[in-house]
Structure formats: C-alpha cells, structure tokens
Specification:
mainly alpha; two-stranded antiparallel sheet; 4 helices; 64% helix
C-alpha cells in the first residue's frame, strides 16, 4: 500500500510539473491553478512558491500574477523524473525477491 504522505521534494516536483504542464502557452500559471493541481492549502503553497522563486526554479510575473518555470526548474524536473524512475525500478526489484 502506497503512502499518501508527500515529502518536500515530491511536492516541489508536483508544483514544477503543474507550472510546466499548464504554462505551455507561455502565459504562465496562477497561484490558484497551482494550488488546485497539487492540492495544497494557501499558506503552504505560498511558502513553496516563495522558496522556489528565491532558489531560481520559478519566476513570478508580479504584474500578471503568474508563475513561469525557469531553465533550472526544468532541469530539476528532469532529474526528479529520472530519480523517481530509478526508485520505482528498485522497488519492483525488491518486491520480486
């Protein structure tokens, strides 16, 4: 049975995925859309968005009130995806032993 508790890295990945997926048109993504997509309350989401912006994974267009993923954010997503794939493969290996 899978755990429903998400860690900080998993939530970060989900936020970046939401911005990447919903911001494909170049217009960015609103905070509300991100919150609905990743199922975070307002307070938690604000903390994550602030941290991701400070660390250069997201940029925030204050005038349009939208978030955009940066090159570093895309790179994080790629690495996060590879790591998740490796972990799933490892878990399958252990489940068959």
């Amino acid at each position: 049975m899978a755990s429903s508790v998400r860690g900080r890295t998993e939530i970060t990945g989900q936020i970046l995925e939401a911005v990447y997926d919903h911001g494909e048109d170049g217009n960015g993504v609103t905070q509300t859309r991100i919150g609905y997509t990743v199922h975070l309350n307002y307070g938690s989401l604000k903390e994550y968005l602030s941290s991701l912006t400070i660390h250069g994974l997201l940029s925030h267009d204050l005038a349009m009130r939208r978030y955009h993923i940066t090159e570093n954010g895309v790179r994080f997503l790629e690495l996060h995806s590879k790591l998740r794939g490796m972990m799933k493969e490892r878990m399958r290996h252990y489940d068959t032993e």
